[in-house]
Amino acid sequence: MNRNLLQRTITGIFFVVTLVGSIVLSSISFGLLFCLVSAMSVNEFCNLVNRQDDVSVNKFVAMAGAVCLFLGFFYCSVYPGQYAVFTVYIFILVYLLVSELYRKKKNPIADIAYAMMSQLYVALPFALLNLLAFQSADDSDFTQYHFILPLSVFVFIWVNDTGAYCTGMLFGRHRLFERISPKKSWEGSIGGCMFSLLAAWGVSLFFGNIMPMWKWLGLALTIVIFGTWGDLTESLIKRTLGIKDSGNLLPGHGGMLDRFDSALMAIPSAFLYLLLIGNC
């Protein structure tokens, strides 16, 4: 037990340091990290669905699509309006469709559906991080890289997860979604939300120039709600496929999808929230 805890702790520290360091360091390190994360997450998703007897998604093309989608968003975030960069990605999507005519696989509809799901469910949320990271400068057509918005998404998720775990262990009585995740409780979810709102208040003290406190609180609440749904959605996928972890890349923590499950819904919802309040 102690060895597993030590392994989990070391892996967790490495994961957090790598993620935070890459986001804070520069736009280049941010882009390189999440380009890699996108490809690895799509690869993991394809490996999961390909376990089914009648499914055979072309994971290498799907991974290439994830990389092209992220780089397209990255490029357009740095140089707004350069939408021609998505040409390659469109060709990849078309290829994923047309190639099923010639692959002669058992269930081409399932292959197409899962291939497109890999792009919509996994690749797109990571690509949308670019729209949080690059903001237009005042009275200028150029954008600037700001680490705080993409970083805050993960900080609020981590605080919510930690707060929910601790509160649930102490006070959890009523199951949140027992059919999908028996261990989650309403008490834990409410506790995690309170801790996230407290974290948002703390962030507003240092970054009030970016958004006022009420907007930070709204962002945290949005991330908590949709992040919880993201967690439950990945749990539903794993339960349907009959697996415990999405992978074993991170010892003691599972795979990439296990670490980013909440973010897959939190990132798009955070973007829409910031768009609605005029901060994106």
What can you see in these coordinates?
- Helix content is 72%, strand content 5%.
- It is built from eleven helices and four strands.
- Strand 3 and strand 4 form a beta hairpin.
- The termini are far apart.
Descriptive keywords:
5% strand, globular, 280 residues, mainly alpha, two-stranded antiparallel sheet
**What characteristic shape results from the CA principal axes?**
globular
Question: Which structural class is indicated by helix and strand composition?
Answer: mainly alpha
Average of pLDDT: 91
Strand composition percent: 5-15%
Helix content: over 70%
Using DSSP, what is the number of strands?
4
Radius of gyration, whole Å: 19 Å
- Report the oligomer: single chain
DSSP helix count? Answer: 11
Strand order of the largest sheet: 1-2
